[in-house]
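User: I want to check something. If I give you two sequences, will you return the structure for each one separately, not as a complex?

Assistant: Yes, each is folded on its own. Here is the first sequence with its structure:
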Amino acid sequence: MADIDIAPTPSTEQPVAPATVIVFGNEKGGSGKSTGAMHVSAGLLRLGFSVGCIDLDNRQWTLSRYVENRRATAERDGANLPLPELAQIARSGEGTRVVGEADERKRFQTAIAQFSRDCDFIVIDCPGTDTFLGRLAISLADKLITPMNDSFVDLDVLAEVDGLNGKISRLSVYAETIWEQRKQRAAQGAKPIDWIVMRNRLSQIHARNKQDMERVLSELSGRLGFRIAPGFAERVIFRELFPRGLTMIDVLEAGDAGDRSMSHLAARQEVRSLLNALQLPHRVPKRSQS
């Protein structure tokens, strides 16, 4: 994957850097968080990095099932499928909110500490609702990726937009949560969150709705300080790969191409474009330093 600008930097003298934390968050379901998380993880694995995946969505466990399907395919077919480490953190069943949140924080921090020691990147898949675990993940994000279907129906994850004049009337609770986390990190002198809104299901037609979305997102980007990245179009291939735990990166690297249609080629390019848009740091893989 030479055309992806995240290549490992070989060295035996550089100090071991902490893992880069990539969080997929959106308080709406069906936006493509788990698909994006698995494709980014697979891309990093194929580049020789070690990846730890943390699944916080205990109502679905979609990312976990993706990884389990991938492991089963590798064992059954003898396929060359690099695997991430995986941790599942469910919401606490403890009594009071204070006790429950303390329990969740402890288990979350344990997973983060382990993966920070052993992995180059940590990819976290958040639930599609506002949860304490989701807010913990955002607070640690180096890269926060918010996948969003490219329609005004899904735009309210960021803000409410007046249906008559297209003006932004107020920010969403989710946007305010990220804004608050950014303020807290700034007060602590920590590195700011690089927030990226990933536009999924982009229309191939230059329609009025697409133009309006571009205008509103551009205005919101200036107000909220996020970057905009192209995501994935609506393609059947993404759903077909899930039962086998495969991604378009695997199809490209392992030669499991199946039907080499223009749609497949376009999907692979979408994944590459997303990986480049993340502007991930060049780093020395930890496995090469052990």
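And separately, the second sequence with its own structure:
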Amino acid sequence: MVVAPATSAETPNSATGGPDYCDLEPFSISAADHEFTFYPHGRDRLKSLIAMIDSAERELKVFYYLFDSDTSGTMVRDALVAAARRGVKVALIVDDFGNDAGAEFFEPLTEAGGSFAIFARRLTTRYLVRNHQKFVIADEARVMTGGANVSDHYFALPADNGWCDLSAAIEGAVVEQFSQWFDLLARWVANEDAGRTKKLRRLRHIVKDWEGGDGPVRLLVGGPLVRRGHWAWVFKKDLRTAKRLDAVSAYFSPPRSFRRLIRRVARRGEVRLILAGKSDISAAIDMARSLYGRLLRAGVKIAEFGVCKLHMKLLVVDDASYIGSANLDKRSFRINVELMVRIEDAGLAAKLRELIDHMEASSDAMTLERYRRESTFFTRLRWRVVYWLSLAEYRISRVSAS
């Protein structure tokens, strides 16, 4: 059942990134014995995140890829510090590569009695495996997750070229799975005595052995070189029989087997992809465009969202919806530690497709005719060079930066 939208932090007109675009207000829906509230609007995401931290009474478990020391980052840190001072057990983990704030920034948290740790702290930033997850658990009763990191960029308006993203607040049984998952990773991070090879092997086992359950709401995870049980393994099973796929992905370079499955879905049904028309990394757009040709010829509908930078990760396959941290790119499929919540509910899938409809209306369609016109020999050559360089080392194009 769809519930009336929550009050937005901004009036619709103030969120305009173009003459016909504004972020949707938050919307709530009950599905599969869970309560979901989705936040397409950046300032609503920040407001909800702070409110969740402020409402915690016993415990907060926080895991982020990127955490900045800017205005928003300071607000979130200070809310965590205040929680620790009132007796809440606060545990924060951030990724080594994505920790732009620096360890010193979090000293007020540890001084207040909270804990702070760095994912892969003994490994240099040249190491490829990174935590790409973003979630906050309050009192093991509610969780907020999605694509947004803690930085002004992820809460800014489209008019200010903020990231277009999506977060979800969830209440229900899956929150316990989030808590168990956090505890596993926290113990892995705390194991300072393990060598690099042993620690990587242990991380792979944690991901491989994770049981996401078989109910309508599942917490699926992914990690380095793990296939069976990986979130993408479940997604692949869905694609094999799917008749419809609607997806929004900030970065697009799925493995060949997934591109083949996407084409097959288009031939027997319908596929719609909303991809980046504006990004912090122009190479990411080139990389995606290098793969458009065969998809378009198979009947895949592609539109590029250029109102502002795109960062959303949303997949809707028939009646199953995925929301979380993973892009449709090789790093999310093969290397990063990721999470995706899979919800099997026709009503929720329909509601999320309305969000995608809204985005498509302000996107530029990439038709086969347009693709043929714009993909000159030298343009295709540039696309391929960018594609292979990015596969060799993501830091060349900094695609891994979000």
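Because they were folded independently, the notes below concern the second chain alone. The chain has a mean pLDDT of 88. The longest strand covers residues 89-95.
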